[in-house]
Amino acid sequence: MKDFFKGVRKHIGRLDAEKLREQYELVADELARSEKLIEILKDGVVRLAANGEVLQSNPAAKTLLGAEPADVLPDLGLPLGKASRREIAVTYPDARTLEIQTIPDAGETVVYLRDVTAEKARSEEELRAGATKAISDLAAGVAHEIGNPLNAIALALQLVKRDPTDTESIDTAIVQLKRLNDITRDFLNALRPRRPNLLPGSLAEPLKSCLATLKPQFEERRIAIALDIPAALPNVALDAEQMEQVFFNLLKNALEAMKDGGTVAIALDADDQDVSVTFRDTGLGMSAEQLAHLFEPYRTTKEKGTGLGLMISKRIVTEHGGSISAESAPGNGTAFTVTLPRLERRIRALK
Length: 351
Description:
Elements: H1 2-11, H2 17-40, E1 44-48, E2 54-57, H3 59-65, H4 69-72, E3 83-90, E4 96-105, E5 108-115, H5 117-120, H6 124-129, H7 131-162, H8 167-191, E6 199-201, H9 204-220, E7 223-228, E8 236-238, H10 240-257, E9 262-270, E10 274-281, H11 288-292, H12 308-319, E11 323-328, E12 334-341, H13 343-350
Helix pairs in contact: 7-8, 8-12, 9-10, 10-12
């Protein structure tokens, strides 16, 4: 289509009225075919202008959302002009889970909606069918991941044996032991997920604890933390230890995305339904392709990563009754948002 328009523009000065009419009819036919294709898709497609106005949508979008996209999308706070991916739960006309992706396109934003209810409701039998391969992959990953730190520890111990005052080698061994512990913890969490022990509490507490733990690493990397915590924050039902692990994984990702300093802006917020915390870094950002596979194991942009951290984080947040979403663009950093239901909303839902 683009080449066609270029050809017409190049020769338009030599086209008479009849030729122009023929070209117009060709364009009209092509547009009609494209619109028909969009109309019959079972997935929802919506085009948004730079100001968020709905320019075009197909019938599937209205069916999946249970209302006109123009009435629903503004309340979702979708990032305009940025790639993002999230899941939402809708209750009308049927209870379902939707995956929503935003794709920037020449000043506009394309919103892609997909019903993932069936995928999320897979039976235990289906999950067990893939368990053997998953365990095999995890075991292979462990063997690969622990090799380097074990070699480094062995070398450090040899150097210390020659010179017991070699504190640098001792420090190296300590660092590598911590790395081994982190690797083991991640793989055990992936293999043996623990149900959260949900208690009333504030998301600010595990966040503050995590920031205190990582403070030396932020200072070493010259990374500033901009923290925005409201004076009054509603309680949620949470397992503080597990949520601290989620925040640790997200902040470690931010650290590794900013090699030469930067800023992580952390903002907690609440509305009538939920409490959220957003981590926005000034790192390298991700492509739409990387974003689409973000929470899958063994999908990582890190040289020494396994991709398990985000997979585990998503599972923890989901088991808390919440959601985790991400938005990013190459060169413009990445933002993760964790959202949990307010305690009173969760209690009403359980009644």
